[in-house]
Amino acid sequence: MDIAHVRNEFTAHPPLMREDLLEKPVAQFERWFNEALSAGVVEPNAFVLGTCVAKRSFQRTVLLKYFDENGFVFFTNYHSQKAQQITQNPQVSMLFPWFSLQRQVRIEGRAEKISSAQSLRYFLSRPKDSQIGAWSSPQSKVIDNRALLLNQWQNMKQRFAQGEIPLPDFWGGYRIHADYYEFWQGQPNRLHDRFRYRFDNQIWQIERLAP
Ligand SMILES: Cc1cc2nc3c(=O)[nH]c(=O)nc-3n(C[C@H](O)[C@H](O)[C@H](O)COP(=O)(O)O)c2cc1C
To answer: Which of 76, 131, 143 has most ligand 1 atoms within 8 Å of CB, for mutation?
Structure first.
C-alpha cells in the first residue's frame, strides 16, 4: 500500500521561540501538559515508554500519573516484560505524541521503583475493579484464552470480597528521573521548532535543534 500522499502541513500553531521557554524543563512540560489538557488532546497523559536491552529496543504505551521536579511516575506489573527490562537497563525514554497540537515531547532518564507506601497510596485511589484487575493479570505472560483471565478476575473478586484490597507485591510505580527533554512544535514547510534541555554543569542547557 502506497500511503505517500498522506501528509499534513503543520500550520495551526505559532512558532516556538527561545524566549517562550521556561528555564526548568519540568515547568515547561507542565505548561505544555496544561495546554494539552485544555485543548482536549485524547489521553494527554499517555506516553510511549521505550526500553532497551541486549541491543534491542522495545516500546509500549503507559499512563503518567504524577510528575514534579523529582520525576515522572507510572504504574505497572513488576513481573512484566518492561519491568524485567528496566531491571537490566534502567535507562528509558518517554514520548508524548500530542498530534492535535502538532507537538511532541521526548524525555529520557533513569527509572527506579517507588516505595510500596507510595504505590499503595495510588493503588487505594483506584476503582475497586481496577485493583482486582491488577491482581488478575499475569502481565506479559502467554495465556491460552480470555476465559482464563475472566476466571482469574472472578476468583480475585471473591477472594477480596470483604474489606480493603491489599497492594499486590508484584505491582507498583516507577519514577523516571529525567536528564534530557526535547520540545517539538510543528511548523510550515517542515521547518519545525525543536529545543532540547540537557543537564550540564549543574544547570539545564537549552539548545535549538534543526528539525
Ligand atoms: C492508552 C494505553 C494506556 C496504557 N497504560 C498502561 C499503564 O499505565 N501501565 C501498564 O502497565 N500498561 C499500560 N498499557 C498497556 C501497555 O501498553 C502494555 O501492553 C503492557 O504494559 C505490557 O507491556 P510489556 O509486556 O512491555 O511489559 C496501556 C496501553 C494503552 C494503549
So the answer is: 76
